[in-house]
Specification:
Elements (H helix, E strand, L loop, with lengths): L2 H15 L13 E2 L4 E4 L2 E5 L12 H14 L14 H14 L3 E5 L2 H12 L5 E5 L4 H10 L2 E5 L4 H11 L6 E6 L11 H10 L3 E5 L14 H4 L8 E5 L9 E5 L7 H4 L1 H4 L6 H15 L2 H21 L10 E6 L2 H13 L2 E2 L1 E3 L9 E6 L6 H18 L2
Parallel strand pairs: 3-12, 5-6, 5-7, 7-8, 8-9
Antiparallel strand pairs: 1-2, 2-3, 4-10, 9-10, 11-14, 13-14
This protein binds 4'-deoxy-4'-aminopyridoxal-5'-phosphate.
4'-deoxy-4'-aminopyridoxal-5'-phosphate (PMP) binds next to helix 4.
Cofactor: pyridoxal 5'-phosphate
Family: Belongs to the class-II pyridoxal-phosphate-dependent aminotransferase family.
Protein name: Serine palmitoyltransferase
Length: 395
Amino acid sequence: MNLLEKLDAAAAARKALLPAGLGAFGIPIEEIYSSTEARIGDRRVLLLGTNNYLGLTFAPECIQAAHAAIDSEGTGTTGSRMANGNYNGHRALEQEFADFYQCRSSIVFTTGYQANLGTISGIVGPGDVVLIDGDSHASIYDGCILSGADIIRFKHNDMADMEKRLRRLGERTHTTLIIAEGIYSMLGDQAPLVDIVRLKNAYNCTLLLDEAHSLGVLGETGQGLAEKTGLVKEVDFITGTFSKSLSSIGGYCVSNHPQLDQLRYVSHPYIFTASPSPATIASTRAALRLLQKGNNLREKLWQNSLQLYSQLTRAGYTLGPEPGPVIAVILDNPEQALTLWQGLLEHDIYVNLILPPAAPEGKSLVRCSVNAAHTDKQIDYVGRTFTKLYPNIFQ
Ligand code: PMP
């Protein structure tokens, strides 16, 4: 099979999984009305499959800041942070992230994907080890591959398995980077950070925590799982994204280690790409301010999350192990997931469909993401619709 035939075979496999005309992946959003509503085809749908946890995509403060930045600094930087793309706004945002976490310094990347690629490949290299959770996001896997370090996986959130692997590493634990996530994006559960930190210290490793889904969601001021567990100072590197609670695009790494700055000179995903646009940086700075004083948003987000989690549990669905803004409905097979996904869309509700091999352990998921802008009425409608569809799925 030549290269193009291989792509044809992959397309055929995808088509076999999805009935004709059902564009579940990359569905076109025709118009976007607010952080909870959009038009798909001729339907006005309720958005329940975004990462817009604090619902800030239309926050006037962020929109005004972005407008002002375009007017004064133009549409793009047209260059790398290491060349012509290092504006005041980028440096100010780095200082604001460092202040937010009360850490020594931070680096802003162009996406969260690149933050993981750039940080991981900057810290470890050939001969080193990365010990990662089996459910890690693709950006973590890709960062590990780019680094050339030896990749060892432990079973998702299984501390006995993690310790077994640490014991086997012997002296190599000194050059081992452990990687975990604050909230896992597939099942919505949190890392057992207290145990991870205990093992990291016992075996003298370095720890990176990706707070992509937990920034703005967990912790008194929204720093994430490290803040919730009182362990910010114990985590060596925290990475995250602007594309979820901060409602824009970009990524960051914060650390107390002075060596973080060195990544700017070695990390290809930092050096060889254009820096975020002025509008992106300005809206992110405004969103970070809202996030820090956003306790009412976090409260509403959790109220919505708990309400939907309990409604879906009562309806009989099997859910991810822990309530939170990411609520994964676990189905036995892709057909059930598709039927549910399609049924929801017919009731004007958009959620994410995740089929094997993308979901962990060959599962099929219908994943809901709740946000702070959802009204009680919207959440209740979603709960009632899931309840109504249950017999169609498990007949
Ligand atoms: N880490 C995790 C855990 C993620 O889920 C994502 C995005 N889905 C990223 C990193 C990458 O973030 P970005 O969208 O900013 O590239």
